[in-house]
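User: What would this chain look like folded?
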Amino acid sequence: MVLKIESLKELKNFSKKFLKELNPVKTGATILALQGNLGSGKTAFVKVLGKNLGIKKTIISPTFIIMKLYDISYKNFKKLIHVDAYRLEKEKELEVLGWQEILKNPENLIAIEWPENVSKVIPQSAKKLKFKFVDEKTRSVKSEI
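Assistant: Here's the prediction, encoded as structure tokens.
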């Protein structure tokens, strides 16, 4: 499915629908692999996703800290883990943050921006979302769900 998004309200509605259709992976963490150029809507999506999951804190891109964890209670998920791999050059840089342990926990919902930078440690079960900048007011998102 490819969807044009022309407002924050449309992005919120897409996020709600996406969450309803998202089925947790039973053998480990559920991963959302968010691809797209700078400014294409990846972080904006995680922000509205977090709000739809009940997170009250302001969600910002963890570009410089790499990973941020939020407590949630949705379906079987207990944590939203927001990862920004933009600055990472090797998978090993993610490994030092306990990546393998994070992947094992089926209560984790992981949203990772720039997954192509650490593709060797992203499981095949990851749900791919491809964001694209169309113009100043419009983005498109291609989703597997």
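The mean pLDDT is 94. If you want, I can go into more detail on any region.
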